[in-house]
Amino acid sequence: MFSKTCEYAIRALIYIAQKSKDGSRIGIKDIASGIDSPEYFIAKILQELSRKDFVQSAKGPNGGFYMDETNLTLSVADIVREMDGDKLFSGCGLGLKECSEECPCPIHNDFKGIRQEIQDMLERFKINMFVEDLDLKMTFLKR
């Protein structure tokens, strides 16, 4: 459903939120290991997310990535839009360029409801909502 880049971005932001809640900062190696991602790939993703203020970073010996209060209220939908665009929430279920109410594809009417349910769910889930479940080991980012 999401691109690999988007998957890693979501997992990394959740992981950083969990690990930095005590004020600490998390390095690339720990993040890559914690979410089972290639280090070079997650570094590139986090650099972009940092530039766009989805995550904070600090350089130096005590540097790394961390989340502030604003970052913690980001929804999964916000991350998806940033990484993959709006296609999941507005695109055709068959991938057609021209699909609308006036010129629907064969699955248009059923898919628009599913698409809306996915968008609503991803809007509802905020980064900070995942931290407690991870701490309690009720959910996982890596198995």
UniProtKB/TrEMBL annotation:
InterPro entries registered for this protein in UniProt: Tscrpt_reg_Rrf2 (IPR000944), WH-like_DNA-bd_sf (IPR036388), WH_DNA-bd_sf (IPR036390)
Pfam families: Rrf2 (PF02082)
Stored PANTHER family: HTH-TYPE TRANSCRIPTIONAL REGULATOR YWGB-RELATED, WINGED HELIX-TURN-HELIX TRANSCRIPTIONAL REGULATOR, RRF2 FAMILY
Name of the protein this chain belongs to: Rrf2 family transcriptional regulator
Originating organism: Chryseobacterium oryctis
